[in-house]
């Protein structure tokens, strides 16, 4: 699908964090490799068995705020998730041309809002590493709103928190399910990220416009 947007009809850009502004490799490595490894070591079990056990926990709360909650997983898995993150900080990286894209939005007078399901502790770690807030007008975690982006209640809560016109808003995310939730709420424009994790193949998304590099958008904004 075309990635052309009528920028003169867009006032606000809501941007997801993990997999959208930031390479998802950090989170995938944490949750799919490091956490199972430490879980297995702690319980003296095989890694394959640990992954099966953890996946059961993951699937039970997928799409809810608990799925994104550092404190929840620290308690359930009996692991210090915050400490594990500190071990792999070098894996926290911007997606290609993300900073240039945010600068172009600012120059064009657009409101730039980070809108993420990530726990505030996760946002803080990435902000400290990359200086996120230096490139954004506002950062909102859905944990502050009480609902994940998958829920229509979340979008209603956001509208009470943030002054924006849904019809004149672009939402960028790496999850097709969440993009659909935004469209169902009435967000005027959606954009998907094709390859959230730079170490993994791209995903197949057909319902929304897709990009792999923010450089694809720069000529139309500048």
UniProtKB/TrEMBL annotation:
Superkingdom per UniProt: Bacteria
Protein name: HAD family hydrolase
Entry GO MF terms: hydrolase activity
InterPro entries hit by this protein: HAD-like_sf, HAD-SF_hydro_IA, HAD_sf
Organism field: Aeromonas cavernicola
One Pfam family recorded for the sequence: Hydrolase
Key words of the record: Hydrolase
Coiled coil feature spans: none
């Amino acid at each position: 699908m075309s990635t052309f947007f009528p920028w003169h009809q867009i006032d606000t850009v809501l941007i997801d964090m993990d997999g959208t502004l930031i390479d998802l490799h950090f989170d995938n490595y944490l949750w799919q490799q490091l956490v199972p490894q430490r879980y297995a070591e702690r319980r003296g079990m095989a890694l394959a068995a640990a992954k099966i056990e953890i996946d059961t926990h993951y699937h039970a709360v997928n799409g809810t705020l608990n799925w994104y909650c550092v404190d929840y997983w620290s308690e359930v898995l009996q692991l210090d998730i915050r400490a594990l993150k500190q071990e792999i900080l070098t894996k926290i990286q911007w997606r290609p041309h993300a900073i240039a894209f945010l600068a172009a939005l600012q120059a064009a007078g657009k409101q730039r809002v980070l809108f993420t399901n990530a726990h505030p502790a996760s946002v803080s770690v990435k902000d400290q590493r990359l200086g996120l807030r230096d490139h954004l007008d506002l950062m909102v975690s859905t944990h502050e709103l009480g609902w994940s982006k998958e829920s229509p209640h979340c979008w209603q809560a956001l509208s009470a928190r943030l002054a924006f016109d849904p019809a004149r808003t672009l939402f960028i995310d790496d999850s097709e399910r969440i993009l659909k939730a935004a469209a169902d709420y009435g967000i005027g424009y959606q954009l998907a990220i094709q390859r959230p994790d730079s170490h993994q193949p791209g995903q197949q998304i057909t319902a929304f416009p897709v990009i792999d590099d923010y450089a694809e958008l720069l000529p139309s904004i500048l």
